[in-house]
Amino acid sequence: MDAHYDAVIIGAGPAGSSTAILLARKGWRVALIEKALFPRRKVCGECIAASNMPLLDALGIGHAARDLAGAPLRNVALIFQDRMVRAGLPRFNDRRHPWGYALGRESLDTLLLEQAANAGASVFCPWTALAMEKAPEHMSCTIQEARSRETRILAAPVVIAACGSWETHHRAIHASSGGPDVRTALAGPQSDRHRSDLFAFKANFTSTTLQNGVLPVLSFPGGYGGMVVEGRSIATLAFCVRRDTLAACRQAKRGATAAEAAFAYVMQACREVDLMLAGSERLGPWLSIGPIRPGVRLAKNSGALFMVGNAAGEAHPIIGEGISMAIQGAWLLAEALLAQKPEALRSKEHQDSVQRKYVVAWRRAFLPRIRLAAAFAHIAMRPALMGAMFPILERHPWLLTHAAAWSGKVEGSFLPENKTRYNAES
Ligand SMILES: Cc1cc2nc3c(=O)[nH]c(=O)nc-3n(C[C@H](O)[C@H](O)[C@H](O)COP(=O)(O)OP(=O)(O)OC[C@H]3O[C@@H](n4cnc5c(N)ncnc54)[C@H](O)[C@@H]3O)c2cc1C
Question: Highest taxon of the source (predicted)?
Fold first, then answer.
């Protein structure tokens, strides 16, 4: 064994770094393992809902994040074919920060990782968690440095999987000797059922005519997406396309990459997007991942292995709530863990009691968002349904405001001072 910690956290996305900050601040010895070299870009629409602003402040990066972000997000638009309807976003009940922001993941995730180090976490980046093993009194995690291939074994009473969901866990981290509960948790209890047929793409653009502070949501046959200005006048376009639609796009644009073919299709399907990007220039390469895995993976019986962020569960990205669920999930997990002394978590009884408390709180907070997002995604990808709904939204655009609120955008029950919900006046 090379080193002992109170918790080993795998993955330094918003879920892992936020958990690391909260535990390290309370004196826990935390190891945070991240395989990518930071800063790194990521497939994401990069919108951070207003409800996270007090949490980012509490994590100590609120000012820095807002300084780098685009204008406050005050409006939402829905783009379908050549039509667009626009409405105000719901106002969060916090006088200092009533609106959300958009910020590139290369900035947000780096701020959080640096803050985890400042809080006292030992950061291993770029190191990959390769394997996990369960011993009677602790978990051990084998990690490997990206360049030198040096390996180390870290031990802790608990391991926290914050490694996202877009690489299948059982392939990403080997747990052959981890015992049945750990293996089930890493694979996801119903992993195959949760593998969707959606592939996701993202690119950044300069010189667009997209208005700063507006969040257009795109609906097109076989997919959905979103656009936003994320700071420094850089626009992000991120979208998901169903497998059969992607195959048809590639057939129509032979020789093009999947991202280029899908992008051409989105521009053709949503005239407004084409207009906003006319004359723009792409910054950096397209990023792609998939298939994404909306659904719940959290299990009460995973013993010393805790899951947070996308590793725990994920909503269809049409509602842009994944960063919220990652940061807010970190709050719920840290609250449950900190109710115990780290050494108490060596016992299965204490682990199970923390798991139960955490899973109940997590499901209460996030299941409604996951279900609503699935319904919105279903409608957005089907032109017959969206075609029937669009005239209603044109007549009553405030329905979009409420849809954003129902999606959790202004759900503020994570800090005591933000217990109240939202103010729909925009
Ligand atoms: C198209 C699209 C658009 C989206 N738009 C939005 C949006 O606008 N707003 C929003 O809130 N959410 C959005 N999301 C969702 C959001 O991106 C995710 O929910 C969020 O990134 C989850 O955070 P996380 O910390 O759980 O995981 P991640 O951000 O995926 O971080 C996991 C980290 O773990 C690391 N890792 C993985 N395996 C290992 C290993 N074995 N060892 C070490 N490190 C490892 C990875 O390198 C990564 O850095 C979108 C998603 C998609 C697909």
Answer: Bacteria
